[in-house]
Predict the 3D structure of the following.
Amino acid sequence: MPLFVILFGAGLYVAAGFIPPPSPSMSPAQVAAMYRDHTTGIRIGMVLAMYAAVLAVPWAAAVATQFKRPGAGSPALAATQVAGVAMAACSGLVSMTCWSVAAFRPDYYSPESLTLLNDVGWILFTWTIGSLSLWEASLGFAILLDKNSEPAFPRWSGYFCFLVTTLNYPTATTIFFHRGVFAWNGVFVFWTSIGAFFVLMMLFQVLLLRSIGRERRAELNLQAHDGRVPTNG
């Protein structure tokens, strides 16, 4: 997860300059100028962001494996978690491909063609939240269905997953607005919906490490009880 955040931030923010996102109300001439003036940065940024998107899938799998213990929820929900992140990663890769194609030959394409690629890229990028909502909801249900005395994740984190899922709904508005809080660069779409997802990921990185640590300590205690590992004192 730390590598995901570093690569994603370096790609979209530092190299490409896509954070904050360009306004959907930009004219074709402005969009063309953006890609022609920042060609190299956008190319480098898309490569970095591409690797970041791929890294999200094994991380989601690591979270899902915490529900493989007896009584720890539904295996179907664990599989759905991984599928949701995989779908989002694929959607994100397609959006990055659109931006990469626009930056591949920006002097060759017309401003209208560059605007089309830019629009498709940003709408796909914000709509990845739809697939991520599948991950969030299935994760939330899995947490609440965990009946172990010491569950993999605290129950409050399951309710937080549902809260973030609710905050994702405004991303559906990106095809209706060119400006304002519901546009793809608006407060409710980019900063709230996508921002909440990253907060959730960072939270579960901490909770995942704690869960793995508890599981490891339990294994060591069991081995010590069985006489396979010497104990102190």
The chain has seven helices and no strands.
